[in-house]
Structures are given as structure tokens and as C-alpha cells.
């Protein structure tokens, strides 16, 4: 998030019970997910990453393939369901803080490093991390990039905290090989103290070919901004997720289509109460309704599962939750610490977080 959240930026049962590993939006097509098994419960199956890096960037390509990106310039890739992780970190990147990774397949991925000025960078690989090319380095000391998203394997956006009173959006039309700052005329003014949270790679998300959403916090109220034209113009609406403090607001968004969205957040400080930490929208983010039974604590990441229309996961440092009614109610199923979650269309759900923690969703009661 903005200048006030340096700690989190730099340090920062129903249909789910299907197969061992569940899924949700990726950038490429996959086989259909298995049918749900309502007799079994979801469980995170941890994988040995071989590192103590904190991973807030995660891209689930499939049940077998996933990328993670995190502290100390660390990028890992698995192609065998998490049994083995290959360290594909860019050379000389140890001083960078990666907070987002977007992957198109097992060979092509784009990572975002956050920070003030030229600490904010984008790198791309086309050979599974064997080589990397820096494709963007922020030259404005007032900008601080938090997250990015892609509509397809060519068109994407990256988001900076407000500059001159408005969020700055940078766009690519060639898969992240080059970037251009978009004009700010179509961006509403930021609220005093408002910014985005670089907590899970989900402060900027997309669905379909043109729709994108921004999650905000830190100001007197939390908001979600929506664009229907790939970032050229935006409209803002308030959410019921509490803000009013630099540590509170909406941290993560997920849209399963251009209409149905979920927002999660709260207060990221340990031990702080996070009431109304989740909300849902059925009209593309124009209005939001607080969950009747929200997660019990702050949640930083959220992801829809690929089958059905109402099942999703939320994660945070204090645990994980499941909804089977489109975000109206949530129930906890794990107390482990995770910062981000992502699902692939073939039924692979992955989570990642502190101390090298990576897991894939499985099922109990086998």
C-alpha cells in the first residue's frame, strides 16, 4: 500500500470438496475440473519449498504447475504438483521484493517487484525462468507499484499508489515485454490517505477481455474501482469492509466473471479485530454487500473455484476460509498462515505465505 504501510509492503462444505487440488481463473484453458465430492473436507497439503522466503505472489497454472514469487528476489516453479521446486530467481535480484507473478504457462511468466522509485520493476521469462529480461523500471520517485493483472497473454495492467492525487496505471499490449503509463484523465481522485495493499498480488484483478478492478484502503472508507475498457476510465464505489486506518481496507479481490466479485481484507496488524472482513458484489462491483458471516480475522487473498458458481477460498496469516454461497457466509477450515491463494481451471488450488509456506488444496476423509 502507500507510504504508510511500509511494514506490509516490504515485509508484506459443498462444492470445494472435489479432488486433491481445486481450481480457478488462469490465463490458459485446461480440462474440466472433477465433480465435487460432498463427503470430504478441504485441507491444505503443504509442500517443501526449500526456502524461508515469504511468498505473496502466486500463479496457479494447473494442478501440476505453479509459480511463486517473494522476498529476497525469490521465484520458484514446480511442474510436478509441488513435489519439487526449481529456484528460477532472476540473477542479481536478491535485493528486490517480488509481490506478484502472472504466468501464462510453465515457460512464460511476468513478475513484479515493489518499492519506491526504481525499486518497482517488471521482469519476464519465456523459458521457464532460465533467463529473465527486465521490461519496466519505474523512474518516478513518487510512484510505488503494488500489483498487476492480465486480461489474456498479451494485455495487462500494473498499479501504482496515487501520484498527483490519482492512482497510476501502466499497461502492456505485448505480454509484459513493454509498458506505457496510461493517461490519468479517466481515473477518479484518490481519497486522502488512500492506497493499495501489496499483500497478495490481488489489489488489481481482471476478468474477461476488458474489465479490471482495484482494491483500496487506508482512507476513511474502502473502495473498489472498476474499469470496463482496460484501464482507460474508472468508476469508484464504497465497500462495507472497514477502513479509517492505514492498516485497514480491502486487500484482495476476485471476480469469476464480469459480474460476480468477492472482496476480503480487514486490519493486517496481528491481534486486531477485523469485523466485516469480506463482501460480495453481483453487479460488477457497482455495489457491495457485507458477508453475513465473514471470516473471523483479516484475510489478504481470495480465489473462486472453477466449477459451480458460488464456491471460493480466502486466506490470511491467521487461517483459511471457505464459502459455498457466493460470499454470503464463510467458515474456517485451516489455521495455517498464508498470504495469497490462486486456482487453475483444471482444479488446482494453491496457497503461499511466510517462511516458504506453499500448499495445494486436497481433501480429508480419503
Please, could you describe this protein's structure?
With 366 residues, the chain is mainly beta. 1% of the residues lie in helices and 39% in strands. The protein is built from 1 helix and 28 strands. It has one helix at residues 6-10, and strands spanning 42-47, 55-60, 66-70, 75-78, 86-87, 97-103, 109-116, 121-125, 133-137, 144-150, 156-163, 166-172, 180-181, 204-207, 211-215, 223-227, 235-238, 248-255, 261-267, 278-281, 289-290, 301-304, 312-316, 319-323, 331-334, 340-343, 349-352, 358-363. Strands 6, 7, 8, 9, 10, 11, 12 and 13 form an 8-stranded antiparallel beta sheet that branches. The chain has a 4-stranded antiparallel beta sheet with strand order 1-28-27-26, with no helix packed on it. The chain has a 4-stranded antiparallel beta sheet with strand order 2-3-4-5, with no helix packed on it. The longest helix is centred in the N-terminal third of the chain and has 5 residues, at 6-10. It is globular and about 45 Å long. The model is unreliable at 1-39 (pLDDT under 50).
Give a brief rundown of this model.
By secondary structure, this protein is an all-beta fold. The termini are far apart.
